[in-house]
Amino acid sequence: MTTLPPLIDEEKLRRYLAEQLPGEDLPLQIERIRGGHSNETFYITRGDQQWVLRRPPRGPLLPTAHDVLREYRVLKALNNSPVPTPRVLLACEDTSVIGAPFYLMERVHGYIIRDTLPPYGADEAGRQAISRALIEALVELHAVDWQAVGLGDFGRPTGYLERQLRRWIGQLERSRQRPLPELDMVTEWLKAHLPVSGPSTIVHGDYRLDNVMYAEHEPRVVAIFDWEMATIGDPLADLGYLLSFWREPGDPPPALDTETWRVMEQPGFMTRDELKEYYAERSGRSVREMDFYEALAIWKLAILLEGSYARYRAGTTDDPFFEQLEAGIPALARRALEVCHRSSSGGR
């Protein structure tokens, strides 16, 4: 088996940080975080200073994918807003330092909910509060005046859904590894059922339970992570994405084997319909056409993972999660198609 090069040159990074950030020039402790499957994340410790570093994965990469400097820009803008975000410290475009662009942010402490819950999630009332806090943070994000925080040229405020379809159809064709007929059927359904968007907001693009951090002692979101897909667009795309990952008791097994997507099956967590209703109540937006946004989210995830599957087949990633994508991506396509059929038949 080919040995992959290190993702961080520890000595070069130490010298760079000694120049850029005040403090003692001490050896670095570097810990790779395996919680996600996209941009690479590391805990960096220097003495009593703690940071988080984000860099792209190894190639080949699709155009516009894994843009960590875009993440940095949106986080820097949101650091001046009420949205819970970690404070960013620096961005580095010089690929000679660690082999790729990267940025550094403060390390926030709390709970990221994957397969276990914090102590306040031990009862149904606590799990209800966790659900509410997730929606409240999303509503807070969508309420930000994106022009006022310096993101006036971050994305185009109109035509978001049309651009999403064009972009992801193009990415599918660039990353496609095999025939995916169900996914192609979803593509045609989405093109035929495009809704009219309301006013644009900041869109996170990857908003789900395990991309936020909760406070240590109360059900409150203290940080939202993984902003690489952020843009300006239709806020309901974020809600649809959240719903696409949200599970209820009695749902069929997930298309991809991960406990992260099953924790919310426990009693007390809101149902998908309750999440939609709570978002509508707090934001004042209509959620009548959410089937489109949910199908769009599952379709986009399948296409994104097909790009990851291409990297796995090329031998440029050592993430064991990608082994299951051969069957997992067609299963996601079938689930998206079920949402399309549910909508067309007048289901909820």
Provide a descriptive summary of the structure in words:
Helix content is about 40%, strand content about 10%. The strands form three sheets. It has a five-stranded antiparallel sheet, with helices on one face. It is globular and about 65 Å long. A hairpin with a 6-residue loop joins strand 7 (about 210-215) and strand 8. It has about 350 residues and is an alpha+beta fold. Mean pLDDT is about 90; it is low at about 60-65. The chain has nine helices and nine strands. It has a domain at about 10-105: Phosphorylase Kinase, domain 1, CATH 3.30.200. Helix 6 (about 235-245) packs across helix 8 (about 290-315). InterPro entries: ACAD10-like, ACAD10_11_N, Aminoglycoside_PTrfase, Kinase-like_dom_sf. It comes from Thermogemmatispora tikiterensis. It holds the Pfam family APH. This is Aminoglycoside phosphotransferase domain-containing protein.
User: What structural class do you assign from the helix and strand content?
Assistant: alpha+beta
Write the CATH fold name of the domain at 10-106: Phosphorylase Kinase, domain 1
Main sheet summary: 5 strands, antiparallel
Q: What gross morphology would you assign? A: globular
Provide the CATH superfamily of the domain at 10-106.
Phosphorylase Kinase, domain 1
* Helix/strand order, N-terminal first: HEEEHEEHHHEEEEHHHH
User: Which CATH architecture of the domain at 10-106?
Assistant: 2-Layer Sandwich
Terminal-residue CA separation: 49 Å
Q: Enumerate the strands of the largest sheet in spatial order, edge to edge or round the barrel.
A: 1-2-3-5-4
What's the β-strand tally? 9
Q: Please work out how many helical segments DSSP would assign.
A: 9
CATH hierarchy class name of the domain at 10-106: Alpha Beta
> What are the low-pLDDT stretches, counting only 5+ consecutive residues below 50?
60-65
- Per DSSP, what share of the residues sits in E-state strands of 2 or more residues? 5-15%
Organism: Thermogemmatispora tikiterensis
Domain Aminoglycoside phosphotransferase: 30-258
Protein name: Aminoglycoside phosphotransferase domain-containing protein
Pfam families: APH
